[in-house]
Amino acid sequence: MVERKYYIFLTHCVCDIGGMQLYTSRKIEYLKSQGWTPLVFFYRSGDIEIDNLKIYSQNHIQDLRFCVGNVSESARKKVLKQIGKFVNDAQDVIVESCCLALGTWGEYIASNFQGKHILYIIDEIISQPTPKMYEFLEFKANQKLLYCIKQKVLADVFKNKFNLDEFVLRAAGASSNNISDSFNPIVSEIPDGIPTILSLGRLDKPYIGYLFDSIVRFVNSNPERKFNFVIVGDTPIHGAKQGLLSKFENIENVNIFDLGFLWPIPRQLFSKVNVALGSAGSIMLCNRQGVPSIAIDVNDYEAIGVYGQNTSNTLFRDENDPVETIIDWLNLILIENKIIRREPEIEQSIDYSAHQRIIDMKMDRIYFPTDKSARFVSHPFLRSAIIRFDQSAWGHRIIQKLWRTKWFNNVVNKVNRNGYSKQ
Length: 423
Hints:
Strand order of the largest sheet: 9-8-7-11-12-13
């Protein structure tokens, strides 16, 4: 008799191409090889670019955007029914959620199907948790079912209460096997012999605006030289890309090559690139291709250093990292030739051993009652109103414009500020 095992991913979206989508795509294939049936449910719709995620296009559930305790009981039952039609015959269920709000749903769904819930925080930065969310995170930590991509994600939450090394789990596959040997005619149009800068990553990342401004200042400070600026990445935010590209209007000494969501990335592109900029898996990918790769700090948007050469960090700076700006590094690499490209590394097979240990680990089948409280987030009614407003087409456009203003970000930060120092 064939064992019926279902692995459920709860994620923001399967559209576009980013680290989360690539991680999910790769892990789906691994899970299939281990006898699991993977399922993906998400709350943000859009064009799906990765082939093996397209089969989940109908699994859009808008209410997943809220914490489970912030929706009605009828809405919760509707979600269970939608998922249950896939897994009601299951002998084994694992739910993996990728952020705090989805984590409340993951716990709720796992409890209803008597499965295991892994809360794996893919976000680079999280808001300060409310007391109720802190209780939940502590519960998952004690179950050894709480993980994050970097220590710093949970460092301010738990202080010295836990050994943070135990929470770190690499997003296996997010930066692996993303290179293609196929010829790309657009890439071939990039002129050789001109210093070429690559930005690799989604254009809705918070650091992107500052990065583009830094490149503008660097190019303007070297008016006698010509540069290529290659952009691999895009954004679903209407008008955002045009706003970024407009920064380069009337700058005559730079050629712009906007390649959008390009995946897999042609290997020939990296033979033309002299320096790459990005964060997380994007910069690891560029480094493996031998390109000097400047990692960007997600807190202050400045350079951490050249990954693999003077820093091992891809998201957050530490006290051992050099103190240089993006412009400083561009000068050192492109003008002074102090750091040059290396031979590409040989691609290694993806190691899922750490993920498999979590899958195999026994659990007590005790669950946190995430559906019993609306206090997993602060200001739940205000949040619900903003989310409902954002769900309309015109409301979404207004919210996206507000996100680009400093005052709105300050308001959001104040709403999210729920001190937990007493814990």
